[in-house]
Amino acid sequence: MAEDELVRMEKINKFYGRIHALRDVSLTVKTQEVVGLLGDNGAGKSTLIKVLSGAVPLTSGEIIIKGKKVELKNTAEAIANGIETIFQDSALVPQLSIARNLFLGREPIKGSRFFGRLDQSAMNASARDLLKRVGITKDIPPETAIAALSGGERQAVAIARAMQFDSDLIILDEPTNNLGVAETQGVLRFVREARDTGHSCIFIAHNIHHVFQVVDRIIVMRGGRVVADDIDPKKTTIAQVERIITGEEMLNAIKG
Ligand SMILES: Nc1ncnc2c1ncn2[C@@H]1O[C@H](COP(=O)(O)OP(=O)(O)OP(=O)(O)O)[C@@H](O)[C@H]1O
């Protein structure tokens, strides 16, 4: 295992009944690396990250985290192994405040473990800090309900939550979907900030331009397989990657 290897997926296969959604997929993510996962509709991207986030069981193959083989039977086990996933319909609770959402399920308690109550002021203070850190400079009080935030601000809160619990790997499934230009830039900035503070990310987006702005490496899937896993966005054009996604161009042709 390379010293900076964080996650390794080895020969992962996934069947949904008779549909073979993942075919011998192998890939790695390094520490402090942002990887873009691209592929057409039905290529297998969502299935792959659902397997890695413990949301669906794999049929065969291995997942190795920091050199140790793990079984991710549910999302709690993935989280315990340092993998936090922010799905499109991110799991924030709209009726609750930003602060409560940031600490959901892991709230700080004041007093004893059994007779304590939520430490609201500690939560609010950390929430204020965190919002500043992810670039929400507008003065949004941490007591604000999620329902009152824009799409970009919600993504920011979801990313801030993953950063604050020091997940090693943050998986972002279409985080820029339906966002405006400024909000998209905000999300891309949070991804950079996550990397700069030591996290790794897998970034899935249909918009290749967004992926190109932020990733260190691109992996392309087609028909349930990884067809390219080492595309350097600094040395490859968007048009070339588009042709790999559709199958018009093989990676070897680019490398040659
Ligand atoms: N729950 C499921 N039951 C049966 N088949 C499924 C299920 N989820 C996905 N599939 C199938 O598995 C294959 C891969 O789908 P997946 O959603 O992983 O692709 P994707 O690359 O994420 O596509 P998109 O970009 O459209 O989200 C497709 O053929 C899809 O129809």
Describe this structure in words.
The chain is an alpha/beta fold. It has one domain: Rossmann fold (3-Layer(aba) Sandwich). The chain has helices at 45-52, 75-80, 98-103, 120-133, 151-164, 181-196, 208-214, 238-246, 251-255, and strands spanning 5-16, 19-30, 34-39, 60-65, 68-70, 83-86, 109-110, 117-118, 169-173, 200-204, 217-222, 225-231. A hairpin with a 2-residue loop joins strand 4 (60-65) and strand 5 (68-70). Helix 5 (151-164) packs parallel to helix 6 (181-196). The longest helix has 16 residues, at 181-196. It is globular. It binds adenosine-5'-triphosphate.
Give short descriptive properties of this protein:
single chain, 256 residues, Rossmann fold, four-stranded antiparallel β-sheet, 9 helices, 12 strands, binds adenosine-5'-triphosphate, AAA+_ATPase, ATP hydrolysis activity
